[in-house]
Amino acid sequence: MRRRIIAGNWKMNKTRDEAVDLVGDLKESLADVGDVGDVEVVVCPPFTALDAVREALRGSNIEIGAQNMHWEDEGAFTGEISPLMLKNLGCVYVILGHSERRTYFGETDESVNRKVKSAMSNGLLPIVCVGETLEEREAGKTEAVVVRQTKAALAGVKTNGAERIVMAYEPVWAIGTGRTASADEANRVIRIIRQAVAEVFNERIAQEVRIQYGGSVKPQNIADFLGQPEIDGALVGGASLDAASFAAIVKPR
Ligand code: PGA
After folding, report:
1. CA separation for the pair 108, 220 (Å, rounded)
2. Which of 43, 53, 139, 253 is 20 to 30 Å from 22 at the Cα level?
3. pTM of structure
4. Are 130 and 164 contacting, i.e. CB atoms less than 8 angstroms apart?
5. 128: CA distance to ligand 1 center in Å?
6. Ligand 1 close to Cβ of residue 176 (< 6 A)
7. Which CATH superfamily is domain 4-250 in?
8. How far is the CA of 38 from the centre of ligand 1 (A)?
């Protein structure tokens, strides 16, 4: 049985003080919804709030992740953040290859792959994002795109421990738009991603790797996605910035 994982991607939102307020509210909201069962909960604040959020989360089961990193451990890379720095702050996860990074900051399959390998060798668990644009979808290229991105991101990663990698299927046209893939369709594409993971590693690892859906996940639609056999959780952007709505996604009523 794969353990569900719900992660909040705060993107470039929240000052350190606002972040501390948000996790304070989140701890209360999660206490209100009670036992969240066997769900792993992760928040991914901006770099500048990671340390404060980690402190504020002490004593809770919520883990922290970063939204990006460089692949080198250290060096002359002005403005970059290394895996060692994230690890030292207590990060467990790091989102890699988010479509906003690919679209606005020039990330490629190759740079995402370097980052995935670096995260794994530094003991950080990547949440690797893949997904097609609207244009690619309309051209019937969804499968080809997610398979290419998945195989490229995972190429050369050691099989040992690879079952701990998390994948996120995020159709680009569904991110921040209020439009979502239908749960059926997300399930179908996620099955294809899982097959690609099996081709890179093996079937056992593919069955253990957790694959999230992301793109306009809200309290109102989370149950549809989680009702699908291939969908192991969600990567939540906008709705993770509100404690009550994120708590309601972690534990749909
Ligand atoms: P959204 O973002 O939930 O605001 O659509 C998801 C994401 O980009 O991870």
Report:
1. 33
2. 253
3. 0.97
4. no
5. 14
6. yes
7. Aldolase class I (3.20.20.70)
8. 23
**pLDDT per position in the chain (253 positions), as tens?**
899 999 999 999 999 999 999 999 999 998 876 777 789 999 999 999 999 999 999 989 899 999 999 999 999 999 999 999 999 999 999 999 999 999 999 999 999 999 999 999 999 999 999 999 999 999 999 999 999 999 999 999 999 999 999 999 999 999 999 999 899 999 999 999 999 999 999 999 999 999 999 999 999 999 999 999 999 999 999 999 999 999 999 987 6
Of how many residues is the chain composed? 253
CA of 45 to the centre of ligand 1 (A): 13
Catalytic (active site) residue 98: yes
List the structure tokens of 200. 């890179």
Residue 45 burial by Cβ neighbours in a 10 Å radius (0-12, 13-18, 19+): buried
Q: Which candidate in 40, 70, 98, 100 is catalytic?
A: 98
Q: Whose CA is nearest to atom 3 of ligand 1?
A: 237
Residue ranges of domains in the chain: 4-250
The amino acid at 249: I
The question of whether 55 is a catalytic residue gets the answer no
